[in-house]
Amino acid sequence: MKTLLASVTVVAAMLIAPVHAAKVEVKWDEVKSFSDFEAVNELQSRFEERTKAKFEEYVAELGAKLPESNTLQVTFKDVDLAGRVDATFGATTSGFQRVLDDVSYPELVISYRYTDAQGAELSSADKVELKSLAPPRNMRNIQGSSHDSLYFEKELLMEWFNDTFPSAKR
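and the corresponding structure tokens:
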């Protein structure tokens, strides 16, 4: 059921994308081996499905800028989400929260393959390390990050996409 929900979310995101979008395929290496893909105060399985769906939706959004005859395959090999998970203690309960600071930066390791309509490889890489050494502390980023739990990770993906596909539609 959870996998069906994630699939429906990705399909819905692709339907919302413009008709001229490239075909986008997102794969995941073993999530349990990721550096930090940890749920905070929710079931790990629910967090994983929701977070993977958000990443997949964003990669599809980026792929919408590429020619429709092409295919972009992205594999997430490692994810280290921005911040760190710390315990919180109250008068009667304890919980956890993700704390953003200047030493707990996000890092993504991906591979990708970009092909044309005939399947000819246009570009690829087996290991692309995306990281920000510290989340910027300006007002725009603080406001943006409060509305999107993957704000800093999406910034990394957007920078990679813009550097890798400079001729993509903006």
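(Above: one complete record from the training split.) Helices lie at 2-16, 44-63, 139-147, 151-164.
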